[in-house]
Amino acid sequence: MFSKKALFALFTSLLMLSMALSACGPTATQAPVVPEKTEAPEATEAPEATEAPAAAQEVEVFSWWTGGGEAAGLDAMIVVFNGMYPDIDFINSAVAGGAGTNARAVLATRLQAGDPPDSWQGHAGQELIGTYVAGNQLEPLNDLYEANGWLDVMPETLIPLISDNSNIYSVPVNIHRANVLWYNPAILEANGVEVPTDLDSWFAAMDTLQAADVIPLALGEQWTQMHLLETVLLSSLGNDAYNGLWDGSTDWSSPEVTAALEDFQKVLTYTNADAASLSWQDAAQLVVDGDAAFNVMGDWAEGFFRELGKEPEVDYGWAAVPGTEGTFQFLSDSFVLAAGAPHPDSAVAWLTVAGSKEGQEAFNPVKGSICARTDCDPALFGVYLQSAMDDWSSNVVVGSLTHGVVANDSWKSSIDTALGLFLADPNIENFQSALVAACVESGPCK
Amino acid sequence: MIKNKDKYVAIALVTPSIIAVGIFVYGFIAWSVRVSLSAWKGLLPDYTWAGFQNYLNLFADPRFHIDIRNTLVFTIIFVFGSLILGLFMAILLDQGLPGENFFRNLFLFPMAISFIVTGVVWRWLMNPAEGSRMSGLNLLFDKIGLDFLINQWYTTPKWGMAAIALTAIWQMSGYMMALYLAGLRSVPEEIREAARVDGATELQIYSRIMLPYLQPVTLSAMIILGHISLKVFDLIIAVAGKQLALDVPAIYMWQTTFDGLFYWRGAAIGTLLLLSVSVLIIPYLIYTLRTETEL
């Protein structure tokens, strides 16, 4: 009687314990490789070293490229990698989720647990530096750059933007441009408007269009408004003062910044009333559908226009955002080397491919972006991307705020909050003092 | 003796779940509270003591003011809207008309849908576009000549939150109807009969007899709706994405923690959310425990 009961109790409690343990399982299943091996390094020949004894080498690369042109581009680059390093198993640990929100949360969990992938994707610049370099999670890559001669094939003004204390921390694979003004050529022609080249001519053009009952500038949800803000700041302040915002040499409380914010406020008066309900695709589509004249969006919009079956230079035209001609406001996906990577040699091999001409020429035409290198073959790219390649190798390069180049995550999120408050209650003075506070709290300002 | 052994078995049986709940619920609550009092900003844990200044900062944060206002607007409209509409539908169904089964299911169906699906559908319905791009409900109003009803829905300045509350009412009022209908059906028929014999009108029967009878149902319903509205997150994200005009504490918590790496602030918001839900739940638990022991 008693023993039966005890047995039952034992069995049930084991069952419940296993349920309790499996409840904390999900995080573990996110990481496809690596069952407990944090301490024991590979070399010690632990008999437990489980998976695939045939391929002694492997590299785990973490990204949020799980669909569309991005995933196809990554696959193309993996083919190049397998060709150059047939001995290394490539483990693709991609986590789905828009712009990497989920992937970054998973990555943070793994890093906090001391279980880094060998290499991971991140927006080049402060998004990587402010988060992972500050957390001592990355190895500098200066040697790799020198060994491969990358300093000679990447724009000189790019390097400081992806470095911290002269240490380069990531290998940019692709380049997108943020300061692009897309326009509808037919609408401009019908209203006798020239493509504007500075803020004043842009305002004049939009006055004309507004009078003609066309939406002058198509705008979408909040992050696209931050994207617009960064291009207007660049246009109004100029390259040097814009760069100074991010290294502390431009005073956020200065009258120049006030004037730039007033420009931004004026630009907003030309936008559609339903901006908050539109995605960037919806807003960009207004231009090619003939509902709006202008849209400021990164050049991934071009891939979207092509998907819609629109013709470049017929259904849509492009120019630098007025007042930013000669400046290339960039953002980039890049890969890093983890400090304490389980397979450092394989990781370096992966980064070598990611920075190589072959790797970038495989990736970028599929993704719809240009190479970070300036020596890729233009024949592989369409007419818009060719013009972007010309600008990339000749323009001054500055970084994007919305896409992680110039400000760390905390700073950017504080600016986003300040912008949101401004949109809810348009008061320049409050906006500016919130921006000053954000720079003191998370930026270089004191 | 046997009885004693039973006791040991019982203790052995509940111990694992007590331990699991202790670690995974209460342990982590304690840990979150500790983080909320720390200076943790950035990727790696930093338990430097910052104390209650964190909470003072949060209360001085203009974004948090918007969150509190939005939560209040949402809670008031959603809770009272669902209760009133649910009661109204329950009273209609209680009249014993043909087709009751059909309508009861019809009203209850939205409950079966997730907030995400509701949100996406209502995002289309509540499209605020104007002119030739008009669509959804605004287009319907335009076609049937109810132009004065055309509005900006969830993009309305200051009151966009009310539109979100409407979608939540659509989803939850059927459930309230079910609760109220069960409550109405539990009122003994004799009492109604007696009231009628005494000359009470139907209106008086409902206001003097049925509603007092429904008080416990209303209390439970308010608790259920109240804690849903304090935690609302997915519905807003699905309808409006991340925009500050429609911010609530749960969204702020998510953004500031995972986009901005302000772990201290995320933990502080989480702690406040827990406290505000407890204010609702704990009196309710005490109330139910008392009534149960009385029975």
Commentary on this structure:
The complex is a heterodimer of chains A (446) and B (295). Chain A has a 5-stranded mixed beta sheet, with helices on both faces. In chain A, strands 14-7-12-15 form a 4-stranded mixed beta sheet, with helices on both faces. A 4-stranded mixed beta sheet of chain A has the order 9-10-8-11. Chain A is built from 19 helices and 15 strands. Chain A folds into 2 domains: 57-176 and 331-399, D-Maltodextrin-Binding Protein, domain 2, CATH 3.40.190; 177-330 and 409-442, D-Maltodextrin-Binding Protein, domain 2 (3-Layer(aba) Sandwich), CATH 3.40.190. Chain A starts with a helix and ends with a helix. In chain A, 48% of the residues lie in helices and 13% in strands. Chain A has helices at 2-23, 26-30, 68-84, 101-112, 126-133, 142-148, 150-153, 185-190, 199-211, 222-237, 239-247, 255-268, 280-288, 300-307, 344-355, 357-367, 383-394, 409-424, 428-442; strands spanning 57-63, 88-94, 119-123, 163-164, 167-168, 171-172, 174-177, 180-183, 215-218, 292-296, 317-320, 327-331, 333-335, 370-371, 396-399. In chain A, strand 1, helix 3 and strand 2 (88-94) form a beta-alpha-beta unit. In chain A, 48% of the residues are buried. Chain A is of the alpha/beta class and 446 residues long. With 295 residues, chain B is mainly α. Chain B has a single domain (37-294), classed as MetI-like fold (Orthogonal Bundle). Helix content of chain B is 73%, strand content 0%. Chain B has helices spanning 2-36, 53-59, 62-93, 100-108, 115-125, 136-143, 160-185, 189-197, 202-213, 215-231, 234-240, 249-259, 263-294. Chain B is flat and about 70 Å long.
Helix and strand topology:
The complex is a heterodimer of chains A (446) and B (295).
Chain A: H1 2-23, H2 26-30, E1 57-63, H3 68-84, E2 88-94, H4 101-112, E3 119-123, H5 126-133, H6 142-148, H7 150-153, E4 163-164, E5 167-168, E6 171-172, E7 174-177, E8 180-183, H8 185-190, H9 199-211, E9 215-218, H10 222-237, H11 239-247, H12 255-268, H13 280-288, E10 292-296, H14 300-307, E11 317-320, E12 327-331, E13 333-335, H15 344-355, H16 357-367, E14 370-371, H17 383-394, E15 396-399, H18 409-424, H19 428-442
Parallel strand pairs in A: 1-2, 1-3, 9-10, 12-15
Antiparallel strand pairs in A: 3-13, 4-5, 6-13, 7-12, 7-14, 8-10, 8-11
Helix pairs in contact in A: 3-15, 3-16, 10-11, 10-12, 18-19
Chain B: H1 2-36, H2 53-59, H3 62-93, H4 100-108, H5 115-125, H6 136-143, H7 160-185, H8 189-197, H9 202-213, H10 215-231, H11 234-240, H12 249-259, H13 263-294
Helix pairs in contact in B: 1-13, 3-7, 3-10, 4-7, 5-7, 5-11, 7-10, 10-13, 12-13
